[in-house]
Amino acid sequence: MAPGLSFAQNDSDSEASSTLPDQRSPLTSPNSSRCNSTSPQNPALNNELASLSNKLIRAINHQTDLDDILAETRHDLARARQRVEQLEGMTNNHEALLASGELIPKEEAERQKVQLLDHLAREQKERGLMEKDKRGMEQELESLTTALFEEANQ
């Protein structure tokens, strides 16, 4: 006997001995025929079945909504964790710069700023006085030069 013929014969034997209905067949399943047979006899069962079906549909829809919310929340959590890692890295970098002296604390910067502004105010005041003295000397020099030329001309 050829191997292909033996194979076909075994398939037909297994189908004949199977007690499970073929899901691919177009015939109605025993469950649906049972439901159809009770439908005309008991409308209360039909109403309850419809009610339970609606509840099941609502529960499935609610579960789907919850699954969507859970997926979105997990995505948000992953983004938040990435942001936390990024901020922790920035914080560590900032602390390292402070420790190495490349950055100074804000209080120190403010203190230095006040000192520099005080120094600038003093320098501006001194410059004003110096310019005033310079103008006075220039006027005195001019008057002396004028007096010298007048004496020289006489």
How is this structure best summarized?
The chain has helices at 3-17, 30-38, 43-100, 106-153.
Helix content: over 70%
Radius of gyration: 50 Å
Distance between the termini: 155 Å
In round numbers, the mean pLDDT is 82
Shape: rod-shaped
**Helix-strand string:** HHHH
Major pleated sheet: none
Number of helices: 4
Uncertain stretches of 5 or more adjacent residues: 1-16, 32-39
Structural class category: mainly alpha
Report the count of strand segments. Answer: 0
Strand content: under 5%
Secondary structure: elements and pairs:
Layout: H1 3-17, H2 30-38, H3 43-100, H4 106-153
What does this structure look like?
0% of the residues are buried. It is rod-shaped, with a radius of gyration of 50 Å. The chain has helices at 3-17, 30-38, 43-100, 106-153. The longest helix is centred in the middle third of the chain and has 58 residues, at 43-100. Residues 1-16 and 32-39 have low confidence and may be disordered. It is an all-alpha fold and 154 residues long.
